UniProtKB/TrEMBL annotation:
<dbReference type="InterPro" id="IPR011008">
    <property type="entry name" value="Dimeric_a/b-barrel"/>
</dbReference>
<dbReference type="Pfam" id="PF03795">
    <property type="entry name" value="YCII"/>
</dbReference>
<comment type="similarity">
    <text>Belongs to the YciI family.</text>
</comment>
<dbReference type="InterPro" id="IPR005545">
    <property type="entry name" value="YCII"/>
</dbReference>
<feature type="domain" description="YCII-related">
    <location>
        <begin position="15"/>
        <end position="112"/>
    </location>
</feature>
<protein>
    <submittedName>
        <fullName>YciI family protein</fullName>
    </submittedName>
</protein>
Length: 118
């Protein structure tokens, strides 16, 4: 799984042509992954202001608004790919345009049902 981390609102700071180019790159990568059969799925996430977080407080689960993390980056979406190797997944992640704008792509294996990867 490729986890997409970026700075909230960075696309609003881009010019119209920069935004068009960025989304064009994403479309190009997605088309390639679809054609090679490596794309399993993926989705962008809504703004963090719509997030609810559940934590244990006073021995009971408590639901609060937002992630409220001490971070300049937010978890913005994910891609699930079926690749030959972790290195191939990292190659795909390195091409993701958000990385050039201060974001990051986290590459993590998905556990199978047996959970033997832990």
């Amino acid at each position: 799984m490729l986890l997409i981390w970026n700075r909230p609102g960075f696309t609003e700071e881009l010019t119209e042509s920069e935004r068009t180019a960025l989304f064009g790159e994403v479309d190009e990568i997605m088309k390639e992954l679809t054609e090679t059969g490596e794309l399993v799925g993926g989705q962008a996430l809504a703004n963090p202001s719509q997030t609810l977080t559940v934590r244990l407080a006073g021995g009971h689960p408590e639901v609060v608004d937002g992630p409220f993390m001490e971070s300049k980056e937010q978890f913005a979406g994910y891609l699930t790919v079926d690749c030959d190797s972790p290195q191939r997944a990292a190659e795909i992640a390195a091409r993701w345009p958000d990385v050039r704008f201060g974001g990051a792509m986290e590459v993590r294996p998905i556990m199978d049902q047996a959970g033997t990867e832990m």
